[in-house]
Write a structure and sequence with these properties.
Layout lengths: L4 E7 L5 H9 L4 E3 L6 H7 L14 H7 L6 H15 L4 H5 L5 H22 L3 E7 L1 H10 L4 E7 L2 H9 L10 H21 L4 E5 H6 L1 H12 L4 H8 L4 E2 L14 E2 L12 H24 L4
Parallel strand pairs: 1-3, 1-4, 2-3, 4-5
Antiparallel strand pairs: 6-7
Helix pairs in contact: 3-6, 4-6, 7-9, 8-13, 9-13
This protein binds zinc ion (ZN).
Length: about 300
């Protein structure tokens, strides 16, 4: 069986990765699966509710993908650990400099091959969108499936990122301003390294540009990834509903069966420390992009 095409969405949390997956997956031949890296944890360990309304264990889509495998319950922990060892933020540099153990990488390859092939088979689609976000996962998938992987690297304006992470009471825990700055720096740095190594396979999508002119961004993605996104364009133009599909892990949008695209146009009520944090993030990104441009002037 020929491998399906993987469209991987990478970037910091709260960068619009889940909504972007939903928008792009609403086209024939494309299936979105949320943050696939957490599927074993959220399916077997937590039995989280799928966006179709059923629990993970009783969703027919995931049942077909996960329960036809030969993995037994004892092996699930090993699968979760293998994914973490290869692609987590903490192990990114080890992966980048190819210090990962061969046996772990081989196991990692088989897990993902199984997942993507099964998803393609069950959904009868050729392109799978995975919005796991980790730069490490993007790099690993590019190396293991070089002819079938493309990465959309999403970034969101610092002010929106700070406001979103600093807000309390959301499903995901909030971060302190210092932690947001460090987190954004590290994620931007890791994503830049992936793009530096594989410039033709990485498309940088600025959330702000997308909101300003979605037609232009989608046309560029269509050309670059060789996919048809006509339905996304027409649904956005008519402000219609987007089907969420079968997402187990993703942000709170996954709790709905359909969503409309209501872009966040940016907070206007940042306090002084939040403004300072946003400026620091902007400065950090400028430095990283400066070095990037220096090394890849034509990109
Ligand atoms: Zn489902």
């Amino acid at each position: 069986m020929e491998s399906p095409n993987i469209l991987y969405i990478m970037g910091a949390g709260r960068s619009g990765t889940t909504i972007m997956e939903i928008l792009l997956a609403n086209n024939p031949g494309i299936t979105g699966v949320g943050e696939l890296t957490h599927v074993f944890r959220d399916h077997y360990k937590k039995n989280i509710k799928c966006s179709c309304g059923k629990s993970a264990a009783s969703c027919s889509f995931w049942e077909g993908i996960l329960h036809t495998s030969t993995w037994n319950d004892d092996e699930i922990d090993i699968l979760i650990q293998t994914l973490q060892k290869v692609e987590s933020h903490a192990t990114f540099m080890r992966l980048f400099f190819r210090f990962c153990q061969k046996t772990i990488l081989q196991r990692y390859f088989h897990i993902n091959k199984h997942l993507f092939n099964k998803i393609s088979l069950i959904s009868k689609t050729k392109t799978i969108i995975d919005s796991s976000k980790y730069a490490g996962r993007g790099l690993a998938l590019l190396r293991l499936f070089p002819n079938y992987t493309k990465i959309i690297w999403m970034t969101r304006p610092p002010e929106q990122l700070v406001k979103s992470f600093h807000k309390k009471g959301l499903e995901q825990p909030s971060k302190t301003l210092i932690n947001i700055i460090i987190y954004d720096f590290y994620v931007t740095f890791c994503c830049s390294l992936v793009a530096l190594k594989h410039p033709a396979s990485v498309y940088k999508l600025e959330y702000e540009d997308f909101i300003k002119n979605f037609e232009k961004t989608l046309s560029e993605v269509e050309k670059w990834a060789d996919i048809d996104l006509s339905l996304t364009k027409s649904l956005l133009t008519n402000n219609s509903n987007f089907k969420v599909g079968h997402i187990i892990t993703g942000n709170r949008l996954r709790k709905k069966k359909v969503v409309k695209f209501n872009p966040d146009t940016g907070p206007k009520d940042l306090n002084a420390p939040e403004r300072l944090a946003s400026l620091t993030i902007k400065f950090n990104r400028t430095i990283i992009y400066f070095f990037y441009k220096l090394l890849k002037p034509n990109y």
